[in-house]
Design a protein that fits this description.
The protein is α/β, with parallel strands linked by helices. The protein has eleven helices and ten strands.
């Protein structure tokens, strides 16, 4: 059952069609239109489900312009669904601007939970899951990728990344360069699909297995990396050391921000204090 003037954010399977929920089927069949990241992909999904509804393209290149028109349709009482190519919309997929615009207009936005590759990988990784940090896709260029990883090297929470087949080898190499080859990690590939694999080892061992097996360089990847388990005192010492050096060239506020990002130490404990020499 659907309600007039409501935007339904609908999770769809990440591989196995049987993972679609009964409620998702009902809502997709009952809305006036479905907003899809790739209408061709979504049309195939709907055909497999025996559903025939109008499709509206909503992707990163047209979302700003399309959101206003779609909100007007909601105001007029239409029922709309939002889907991505796979998994939960907005999680490294388009839809944020549309959802924000709908909420700002006072329209009801209702989630239909379901498949999410990041959560699926975390659930089988065997790494701490009480606190984790989702980073999505790393930058495509090597320099930017290493810069992002450098800011995360002291992060104590488990890290979850998405990666593509043509960059998985480079991403693992950069993780080793920044985090060290001994950091524990799990590589989940093609989750819920025929060739699903979940490999757990050190970053160095994972990189070697990926390099040695062409099959492990195909498909879609989620990389789950154990957080930095150095104790807080060690992070604080390193943060204060970096802060002292950076203050030789930068304003204290900027130095504290960079030192905190690189060390994982709290920024407030660095800025305004008396850093160790």
């Amino acid at each position: 059952m659907t309600t007039a003037g409501t935007l339904y954010v609908v999770a769809t399977p990440i591989g196995n069609l049987a993972d679609i929920s009964a409620r998702a089927r009902e809502v997709l069949a009952g809305v006036d239109a479905i907003c899809a990241e790739d209408t061709r992909h979504t049309r195939q999904l709907l055909q497999a489900l025996g559903i025939d509804r109008p499709l509206v393209a909503l992707h990163e290149h047209n979302e700003d312009a399309a959101a206003a028109k779609l909100v007007e349709r909601l105001r007029a009482g239409e029922r709309l669904a939002l889907v991505s190519d796979a998994g939960t919309p907005l999680v490294s997929d388009p839809g944020y601007r549309f959802v924000r615009a709908a909420r700002a207009a006072g329209m009801k936005v209702s989630p239909l939970p379901g498949a999410c590759a990041a959560i699926a990988a975390l659930s089988v990784a065997g790494l701490p899951s009480d606190r984790f940090c989702f980073e999505g896709f790393l930058p495509a260029k090597a320099a930017a990728r290493r810069e992002r990883l450098a800011a995360l090297v002291g992060e104590p929470r488990t890290l979850v990344f998405y990666e593509s087949a043509h960059r998985i080898g480079e991403a693992l190499a950069d993780l080793i360069a920044v985090f060290g080859g001994e950091r524990e990690a799990v590589l989940a590939r093609e989750l819920t699909k025929l060739f699903e694999t979940v490999l757990g080892d050190s970053l160095a061992e994972l990189a070697a297995r990926v390099a040695a097996d062409p099959d492990q360089r195909r498909g879609e990847f989620v990389l789950v990396v154990r957080g930095n388990h150095d104790d807080a005192d060690a992070r604080l010492r390193e943060g204060r050391r970096l802060y002292t050096k950076l203050c030789e060239h930068l304003k204290p506020s900027v130095a504290a921000k960079l030192a905190a990002e690189l060390s994982g130490a709290p920024r407030k404990a660095l800025y305004g204090g008396d850093p160790d020499p």
